Amino acid sequence: MKNGKNPLSKGGQNLKPGKPEDQLDAAAKAKRDLDALNAERRSKNPDVAQAKAPNVFKMMKSFGKDLKDYVKAGAPNCSEEDYKKRLLTCNMCPHLLKNMMRCGKCGCLVEHKAKWKTTTCPEKKWEKQDLTDLKTPKPKSSED
C-alpha cells in the first residue's frame, strides 16, 4: 500500500484478485440472476414470454385487411364505453408491447385499432360488435 491507498482500489470500488465474476457488483449479479429466472419462467410458461412485435410484412398485411374492412363499412367507430373496455383488455394482455402500445400478435397500434368497430382482437379477447347497421358496399354495375 502506497500512501495508505489500496493498489487494487479503482474509483472507490475495491477490486479483489480472482475470477472476473467475483468482481461483479451486487446490482450486476442481481440483474443476471433475475434475467436467468425470467428466462426459465418464460421457457416453462409461454404466457410469461416477453412479447415481440411481428415482422413488418405481417403488420402491413394485418393493417391492410383491417383498413379495407373499416373503409368498406363506412369507417364506423365503436362507442366510447367499448373503446375503453378494449383498451383495458389490451392493457392486461401479455402480448401488449407497452413501450410502443403495440399488439405483439398483429402489430397494430392498439389506441387506433381499438376505435374501429370492424376490427377484432387476434386473441378474441374483445366483445363482439354489432355490425348489422353498417353500410354494405353496393354491387358493381355491369354498365361502364
H and E string: EEHHHEEH
User: Which strand order spans the largest sheet, edge to edge or round the barrel?
Assistant: 1-2
Structural class: mainly alpha
Strand content: 5-15%
- Whole-angstrom Rg: 26 Å
Write down the overall mean pLDDT.
76
Oligomeric state, counting identical vs distinct chains: single chain
The poorly predicted ranges are: none
Largest sheet: 2 strands, antiparallel
CA distance, first residue to last residue: 97 Å
Q: Please report the number of helical segments.
A: 4
**Whole-number total of structural domains:** 2
Q: How many β-strand stretches?
A: 4
What coarse outline follows from CA principal-axis ratios? elongated
Helical amount: 25-40%
Features of this protein?
144 residues, mainly alpha, 4 strands
Please explain how this structure is put together.
With about 140 residues, the chain is mainly alpha-helical. The chain has two domains: about 20-50; about 50-135, no CATH class. It is about 35% helix and about 5% strand. It has helices at about 25-45, 55-70, 80-90, 110-115; strands at about 10, 15, 95, 100-105. The protein has a two-stranded antiparallel ribbon. Strands 3-4 form a two-stranded antiparallel sheet. The mean pLDDT is about 75.
